[in-house]
Amino acid sequence: MCGIVGIAGFEDRELVREMTASLSHRGPDGEGFLFDPEVSLGHRRLAIIDLSGGAQPMSTSDGRAWVSFNGQIYNYRDLMKELESEYSFRTHCDTEVLPVLYSKFGQEMVHRLRGMFAFAVWDRTDKTLFLARDRIGIKPLYYAVLGSRLLFASEPKAILRCAEVSREIDPVALDAYLSLLYVPPPYSIYRGIRQLPPAHTLTWRAGEVEVRKYWDAEPRPDFSRTDEEWAEEIAPILEDSIRMRMMSDVPLGAFLSGGIDSSTIVSVLAREGSKPVETFCIGFGEEGRAYEERPIARRVAGFFNTNHHEMEITLDLLSGLEGMVRAFDEPFGNPTAMLTSELSRFTRQFVTVSLAGDGGDEMFGGYPRYQGMAWSEKLRSIPGPLRRLMASWVGGRESSTARNYRRWARQLLEGCDYPAAERYSRWVGYRGPEERDRLLSPALREEVRKAGRIEPVIELFNAPSRGGGVERSVYSDLHGFLPENVLRYSDRMSMAHSLEARVPLTDHVLVEAMMRIPARRQVGLLASKRLLRKVMKGKLPEEVLARKKLGFNPPMGVWLQEDSRKLLSEWLHPDVLRRRGLLEASEVNRLVEEHRTRRRDHGLPLWSLVVLEAWMRLYLDSR
């Protein structure tokens, strides 16, 4: 893992050095630069492969193509063998295949890569700068266009080193954040910075910028095959995806929650490795008992004879807030990020690389909302007034627990009033359009109206040319929730502690195979991850295969109940909100009061507002 930066269209060596230094946490093992009049590149390195020979920026032997690269190319050895008759490689590092591939295939090189990546290639001959981001969006890439000039970096903090880049809040991005708890690409919270979306490339030449999409994974369900046939096809692809990510010249381990995803990864590592797997798990005290996963993780660790490490989190939300916000440089409202930060910090004491089960729910149908989509088509036959009465009854008092069945039932019944795409958008998001309108100040509401509100979940749900409600839900998550929520906090929080996190369940070959499997093979009205359970039958303890999904979440509702008085009196005080001029103080106060009295569980939406205020204090007030 590494951090990359660069500028194009002007020369400013001091700026490039400052940008590079700001990403030292992503690469504590060294830095390097390329300075040309038209383009300058910077790089911070976390050494994983070929520890002595992988310094960057790296070029082809003729000096034509230069690369600054963040990520890991898992098929690089095969690519080297393919190219060695035409090129003499000087290192054993995956980085070197990138400029060589570019020299041979140009921008089509991206189709030959299997891995996670964000990189920049400077072609000195054609005077072209080429940026690319991996298909699933594991590695981040941000950019800013200033007339004919371009700046790019792994994180916004590096681009913000340039005083000309606007820090003004983008109202459309803020509105989307209030719904999703993250800012979706191509937006960022800043008017002056954009995200390069997953599976996209950016080309800069002579001051002109072009952004292009190079990959997609639409559902193409094949109904002709049985469960057994699908399991037989998927099993070797799944194992290969995990096995490829074992390559490392530094210590490697795995996060282990005891769920089927992380347990599947550990099962392959245990079988393929030459020594016991290093596994890592975190848990909570008494207040988080409902979220506790350590007991089952211990049993899985014992089953595979791993070298197991665990810790108990005692987290002060507000004291850890600044570090989390600075890791993202923009509001990010999913508190699981704080857990991942603590887990990464703990894990980094033992290993430099850790495999994680991120993507398993999207690939194998693990989210309850997929079952909800299947149920909702049947529940829509119930008359609307009766459904709403049922929703009001089941949601009478919502506890802040790990499995909040009352809230789930209420959201399921309320969602049936809407078309499938909007229904799913409301389940993934936390505030519908009318709720955001009540929350936004009149001035900001008008700005959003003029600019045009975006609804990315609806757009993604409606994008595929085929597939039913569940298939479209998975597609939406694969291109939205997974990269912009799950993988974003996985990258930021692991890299904040110089830990490389690898996510084999997001391998694009596996993704393409899974998108051919009909939803009914994966999700039933009362079952989830049906195919994965079949693949892993006999390979995992039965209690893991039978276990219901819990999820890697903190006891936010409990923590916020304890801190609600301070949140209301300090962070979300009406005077603070009025001074900002972004949100309606009366609406925020209503949410706090409903949460405090347990009429509704607003834990995550309230936390997102605290994060927003913290970001403004750190990035707008302190300039």
Reading off the top of the CATH hierarchy, the class of the largest domain is best stated as Alpha Beta
Strand content: 15-25%
What Rg is obtained from the alpha carbons, in whole angstroms? 24 Å
Question: Which consecutive residue ranges, at least 5 long each, have pLDDT under 50?
Answer: none
The total of beta strands comes to 17
Task: List the strand order in the largest sheet.
Answer: 2-3-1-9-8-10
Coarse shape: globular
The secondary-structure class comes to alpha+beta
Commentary on this structure:
The protein has 623 residues and is of the alpha+beta class. It has three domains: 2-213, Aminohydrolase, N-terminal nucleophile (Ntn) domain (Glutamine Phosphoribosylpyrophosphate, subunit 1, domain 1, 4-Layer Sandwich), CATH 3.60.20; 227-364 and 470-546, HUPs (Rossmann fold); 556-623, no CATH class. It has 27 helices and 17 strands. Helix 9 crosses helix 27, helix 12 packs antiparallel against helix 19 and helix 15 crosses helix 18 (456-462). The mean pLDDT is 91.
